[in-house]
Amino acid sequence: MAFAFFDSTPFSRNKAIVFVFISAILWSTNGLFIKLIDLGPLTIVGVRSAIAATMMIALYNKNLRFNWSFPQLAGALAYSGTVILFVSATKMTTAANVVFLHYTTPVFTALLGAWLLREKLTRIDWLVMVVVMGGMALFFFDEFTPGGFWGNIMAIISAVSFAFMIIALRLQKNSSTLETIILGNLVTALACSFFIIKEPPAVIDWLPLLYMGTIQIGLSFIMYCSAIKYLPALDAVLIQTIEPLLNPIWVFLIIGEVPGLWAIIGGIIVLAAVTIRNIYTNRKQPVQVASAV
Fold this sequence. Notes:
By secondary structure, the protein is mainly α.
């Protein structure tokens, strides 16, 4: 099986770094392609999820085990909410705003972990939360359209939804979590089917949509999940910062979209605070945060 190649191939630290590095670069192209495709956000995310689910099912086929447990179903719904909100937000505000606001996921994961899993919050967690909230507030200091304002709000909610998904994945313990992601993509495709029928992609749209479904979501997720268990947490944390750094750069270079000054300052604060917190808390723990939305 194709997926077995990634799971069974011996991994050195350097090979794992390359796989996670490539995954982060692929994820960073998300904002650019969402901006380039001249379709509604629900059509884009629905088609992309249908393609991604088809690819993952084809590659993993007989190894899939759907147990229909509450964490699996809750994680699938949270994943669906995340990608729908993320893509919609990217259509409404700048790609930089969305990716930096979405990068606050670890903060919300810590809060939800304390609430749902009775995990203890550390002093650095509380400090980072205060700093991140201050950085997030700066995003709303720029002048933008009402759509831009609500795009920022949707980006924040997508980070909360993604945090719920991470908690759901952790509740599944040693069981495979790929099924949750596949279910999430299937739920997304079904939820957006009306919009796909109402606004079917044109021939010119299919190439970027195929890239997003098979490469930007499908392949990157497979590579990341295959390599992350062989990589020290510190390395993974540092590599993952590539995504929020490159995402707005691609959009600027190709489309010329420039985020506001306050958003740039807020993004730097959020990126620095979350990265420092990840480095500190994940020195002896597996990395809990991925992207691929």
